[in-house]
Each structure stands twice: as structure tokens, then as C-alpha cells.
């Protein structure tokens, strides 16, 4: 069985994403959004969505925002503090002003704050993940910290253009696993 470290996977998947055309990214993001409709999450009310860093060719979550809006869900987005490595969560409303930070992450300027424990479903950005539900992000630990503040029953859904790796070898005890990962072709359940 091939064993892989987070560092190797970060590099591999950043490269793979760079190779995607804008058209491929859009089509795959649409396929992911459609697959989400099959998940048993739609009776929940509070959904946290990341806004994609287009420069990093992340999954485009705009379609997910439309789904949530169409289903009348409360949509929550975050702002990251790079000094404390903490995220503050805000309700996304028609009045929310979004601005990119120095890392090209679109963030709300301010708004109605929502505590982590209210959030019931989190769509998690990632670079890679394995068949046990462990994920590799950019390595800053924002999501690990945020997910640890959520209730244990909060549903954590990774979004990826790519299929799962066999096993990430250097996971930590306090790494929080995903419940699902959704790709254009498949829904992994952990």
C-alpha cells in the first residue's frame, strides 16, 4: 500500500489543480454541487460554505450557495485571522460585502456573527484526502481549529475534484475527519 505524507500530497494536488482549465473547473464544480443533492443533509438549517480562492483553482462553491438559497438555508461564511489562526463566522445576507484578503481569500467585511456550535453542516476545502476521511489542507490549521469548535454531530463534507488517496501517513491525533467527501464522480462516506 502506497503511503503518502501531507507535504507530498500538498505539492501533488496543487500541481493537479493548476492543470485544470477554467471550463473543467466549472464543469467539475457543477457535478459536485449536483452530487450534494444525494446527501442526507437537507433537513439541517445552518450551512457553512467556503468561498473559493480562484487563484488556487478551488472548487467553485457559487452553485452550492444557489442550492442553499433555493432551499432557504442559513448560509455562513468566514473571515480568517492569520495571527490567531481563528475564523469568525458570519451569516451571508444580501447586504454582506465581500472583499479578498492578502491571500486572495474572499471574506465578509463584517455582519451578523454566528457561533461555531450553531453550524450543522460544513463544506470543507481541501487539497487531498484519504479513504479513511483524513484531509490535507494548506497546513495552516484553520479548519482543524474551527471543526474542533463545532458540535461532534456537525456534518463535515470535503469537496474535491480528485479521488481519494489510499492513506495519509502523518495524520495527527486531533485531526478531525470528514464524514463525506464529494467529487464530480463519487460520494465517499467515512
Automatic annotation (TrEMBL):
One of its GO terms (biological process) is tetrahydrofolate interconversion. It holds the Pfam family 5-FTHF_cyc-lig. It is an enzyme of class 6 (ligase). Substrate binds at residues 53, 58. GO terms for molecular function: 5-formyltetrahydrofolate cyclo-ligase activity; ATP binding; metal ion binding. Its EC number is 6.3.3.2. Keywords: ATP-binding, Ligase, Magnesium, Metal-binding, Nucleotide-binding. It catalyses: (6S)-5-formyl-5,6,7,8-tetrahydrofolate + ATP = (6R)-5,10-methenyltetrahydrofolate + ADP + phosphate. Its cofactor is Mg(2+). ATP binds at residues 6-10, 135-143. Belongs to the 5-formyltetrahydrofolate cyclo-ligase family. PANTHER family: ATPASE INHIBITOR/5-FORMYLTETRAHYDROFOLATE CYCLO-LIGASE, CHROMOSOME UNDETERMINED SCAFFOLD_24, WHOLE GENOME SHOTGUN SEQUENCE. This is 5-formyltetrahydrofolate cyclo-ligase. It comes from Flavobacterium granuli.
Amino acid at each position: 500500500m502506497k503511503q503518502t505524507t501531507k507535504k507530498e500530497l500538498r505539492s501533488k494536488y496543487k500541481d493537479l489543480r493548476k492543470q485544470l482549465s477554467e471550463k473543467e473547473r466549472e464543469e467539475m464544480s457543477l457535478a459536485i454541487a449536483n452530487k450534494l443533492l444525494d446527501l442526507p443533509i437537507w433537513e439541517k438549517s445552518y450551512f457553512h460554505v467556503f468561498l473559493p480562492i480562484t487563484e488556487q483553482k478551488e472548487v467553485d462553491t457559487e452553485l452550492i450557495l444557489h442550492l442553499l438559497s433555493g432551499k432557504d438555508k442559513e448560509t455562513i461564511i468566514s473571515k480568517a485571522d492569520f495571527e490567531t489562526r481563528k475564523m469568525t463566522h458570519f451569516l451571508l445576507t444580501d447586504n454582506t460585502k465581500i472583499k479578498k484578503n492578502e491571500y486572495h481569500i474572499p471574506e465578509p467585511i463584517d455582519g451578523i456573527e454566528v457561533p461555531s456550535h450553531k453550524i450543522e453542516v460544513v463544506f470543507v476545502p481541501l487539497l487531498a484526502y484519504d479513504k479513511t476521511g483524513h484531509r490535507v489542507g494548506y497546513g495552516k490549521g484553520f479548519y482543524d481549529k474551527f471543526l474542533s469548535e463545532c458540535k461532534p454531530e456537525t456534518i463535515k463534507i470535503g469537496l474535491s475534484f480528485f479521488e481519494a488517496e489510499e492513506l495519509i501517513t502523518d495524520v495527527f491525533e486531533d485531526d478531525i475527519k470528514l464524514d463525506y467527501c464529494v467529487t464530480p464522480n463519487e460520494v465517499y462516506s467515512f
